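Quick start: what a row looks like.
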Amino acid sequence: MQPLSAAERLAVALVGGAILIARSPSSAIAIVNEMRAHGPFTQMVLGVTMLTDVAVIILFAVNSSVADTLVSNLTFDISFIFLLVGELLLSLAIGYGVGKLIETLLRSHLNSWLKRGGLLVIGYAVFLMADLVREASHTQLPFEIFLESLLICLIGAFYVTNYTAVRSEFLHILEEIGPPIYVAFFTLTGATLQLDVLAATWTIAVALFAVRMVVIFLGSYSGGLLAREPALFNRLSWLTFITQAGVGLGLAKETAAAFPEWGAAFATMIISVIVISQLVGPPFFKWAIQQVGEAHGRAAGPAIDDERIALIFGLESQSLALARLLQGNGWQVKVASRQANSHENLHESDVDIHPIPGLTLAAMHELGAEKADAIITMLSNDENYQVCEMAYEHFGTEQLVVRLTELNDVARFRALGAVVVDPATALVNLMDHFVRSPAATSLLLDMDEEQRVLELLVRNPNLHKLTLRELRLPLDVLVLSINRNGASVISH
C-alpha cells in the first residue's frame, strides 16, 4: 500500500473511528441468557448496546461520505452538507420502500422457498443498487451519491418488525436463511485477510484495541456520572461494551469495497481489533454481571453420595402418596408445607412432614436443600417458580419436578431445566401410551414384578473408557441408554 496523503489518513481515521464504536448485541444477549441476568445494570447495558448498534450505522454512513469527499479531493462547503443530508434522507426513504416490498412479499401466497429466495434477492438488490448509483453519479454528476446499504436494510427490517403483521414470519425466514449466509460471509472475510499486512500491523491492532478500551471506559464513566448511575455501575459498565462482532465485520468489508486503494489493508487491521475484542470481551462482560449481583445462573450441585434425598413442597393427598412411593424405593423424603401444623396426626405420620414459615432461602437451608437430589413442587405456579428459582440459583438441584396449575407457564420452568407435569393431560397421555405401547409403559411404571427400570450412577473411575460389552453385567440386564455430560446415548 502506497503512503497516504493527509486527507486519506483523515478519511481512514473517520471510518475506523466509526467502526470501532460498534458493539455486539448478539453476544450481549447470549451472555445475558446464559447467566439469566436481569436487573437495572443489565437493562442499561442492553439498551446502550442496541442503540449504539443503530447509531454506528448512521455514523458510518456520514463518515463514509466525508471520507469519500476527502479521498476524491472535493471541497467542503454548504452544498456538501446538503448532499450529506440528502444521502441520509434518500437512504431512509429507500429503506422504507424496501420494508414495504418485504411486507408485500411476505403477505403473498407464494411458496415459503420463493419467499426466502425473494428476500435474498431484495437484500442483494439493495447492495447492487447502491453500487450502481455511486458509479452512475460519479460519471454523470459533479458529485457522488453515497448510499449506505446497511442503513437501508436496517430501516427496512425495522419497519417490517415493528409496523407490520408479518413480523413472526419475517424473523422465522431470517433464522432459516441465516446460517448459510453467515458461513459465506465469514468464509469471505477470512479469505480476504491479508496475512502479510496482519504480520506487519499486529502491534498497531493491539494499540488500537488498548486505545479503544480506554476511550470506552472514559465515555462509559462520564455517561454514568451524567445519568447519575450508581458508582459501581460506572466503574464496571465499560467492561460490557468491549465485545464486537457482526456489524463491525460488515462495515470493515464494506470499507474494503468502497475504498479499494487502502480498504483491504484497513479491513485486515480492523478485523484484527474485532477478533481481539471478541476474545477479551465476553469474559469481562460475565465478570461485570457477577460483580453487580445480577447473574442468576445455576449453582454447583450437591456432592455425589449414596443417599437419595427428595423435598416435596405442598401438603395434600398426592404429595403424601408420592412421598410414600419414593420412600418405598429407598429415597429419604421430606414434605414441606406452611400449613403442616394444621395436619392431623402430624407426628404420627409415616411421612416426614416439616412445617416451614414461608418459601424463603432460610427455610430451604433448614430443610437441607443443599443436599437434595430432587425437589418436587405442588403449589401454585408462582410459588412453584419461587422454589425452583431458589433451588436453581443457590443449590444447583439437578432434578426439579413441577406440577402446574396453568399450562401457559411452561416456558419459564423449562428455562430452569425443570420437568413439567400438567395434571390435565398427564392421565390422558398415560392412557394413550398404554394403548400404543403397553409393554413399554408397564415396564416404566414397574407394573411387572419380574422387570424393573433403574438409573445407576457409575462412580468407579476404573470403568472409564470401557465399552458396554466389556462390562460384566448379568445376562438379564439390558442397558437402554447412557447419560454423560448431559447428553443421552441410546445403546440399541
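That is the whole record. The domain at 309-421 is CATH 3.40.50.720 (Rossmann fold). Residues 468 and 474 are 12 Å apart (CA to CA).
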